[in-house]
Amino acid sequence: MIVAFSVTPLGVGEDVGEYVADAVRVVRESGLPHRTDAMFTSLEGEWEECMDVVRRAVAAVEARAPRVSLVLKADIRPGVTDGLTAKVETVERHLSEG
């Protein structure tokens, strides 16, 4: 499964980078394949693994912020591995053909 999620602290002002870094640190320490961009962090693994990382990432932000927003999207496809790379490669292949 691939999970794309965003954890946003609320009530801490406009500069939220240090809070988001706490969440991303949890993801990086998980050892699961992941990518972080300007809007979301995506990670790949089994259901329990991914949800545990998301829960801990939210908890890391929640420990310092009075309120937390979580946006989550999941692609649940049993038996698929390396989806983080394969999905992008498929799109790139189609772009190069046209």
Write the layout of secondary structure elements.
Elements (H helix, E strand, L loop, with lengths): L1 E9 L6 H14 L3 E3 L4 E4 L2 H16 L4 E9 L7 H15 L1
Antiparallel strand pairs: 1-3, 1-4, 2-3
SSE series: EHEEHEH
Number of separate helices: 3
Low-confidence stretches: none
Instruction: Name the structural class.
Output: alpha+beta
Largest sheet strand order: 2-3-1-4
State the share of residues found in helices, binned by percent: 40-55%
What amount of the residues lies in strands? 25-35%
Give the biggest beta sheet: 4 strands, antiparallel
How large is the radius of gyration?
Answer: 15 Å
- Globally, the shape reads globular
How many angstroms separate the termini?
29 Å
Overall mean pLDDT = 95
